[in-house]
What does this fold into?
Amino acid sequence: MNDKINTFLNSDLLEKYLLGDTTFAETEKVETYLSKYPEVQNAYNALQANLEIASKSQAVEAPKHILNNILNELDNAPVVSIKPSNKYKKWYHLSIAACFAALIFAGTSFIFYTQNISLKTENQKIVDEIYDLRNDISLNNSKLTDIMLQFKQLNNPETEKYIIKGNNRAKNLKTVAYINPKEKTSMIDVVSLPQLPEEKCYQIWAQVQDNMVSLGILSETDRELKQIPYTENALGLSITIENKGGNQTGSKENSVAEITLQK
It folds into this structure.
């Protein structure tokens, strides 16, 4: 791989292009490199795969009922049509017409007043739903930020990937650990965990010399990419079966999966 390709890959143009943040000139440059250099195309494919891993469990559906409720409320807002009163030509009918006009005016005023109260109530409902929608958008933006941070960690060249598979006691167990000793970050992706009795749980440990340091409980419902504590000078990782709630000290006798970390 020549220096030109190395310089391009070490820049952030591929990540920006994948996220749609490149300028017109940057887009042309990226697409030129993608078409000319297989190494760049392979790196781009890897970025797409890692982004899918980072975002698979964070996906949150926007509330579907809000837009429909707003449209329904607007459709249901009544429209009042006021019919003009008939004009009488004879002078002795003027008093009767005035009475009817007064009654119509009073009735119309009451209708408008009632509709105004109803519209205020409906508008407040719409405002509340819009406020909730904004909160959902803010929450989704926060989750998107977390996904982007995980995405950058996955694509950091210093990040090492470790596949942890279960032994005969947990043959279907599979997790993937991502450890970056330079940035001092650790993440784990729980792929599959065999079901345990209610009084048991899975616990992950870091092997530090002769000690096992707890990194937390792994739940069967916790199948998502998440941060775990980074342990300095860890020699390996181990997953054990413990009593519900976990233990303060670990034992290799309870181990169902373990790996040795690269040094």
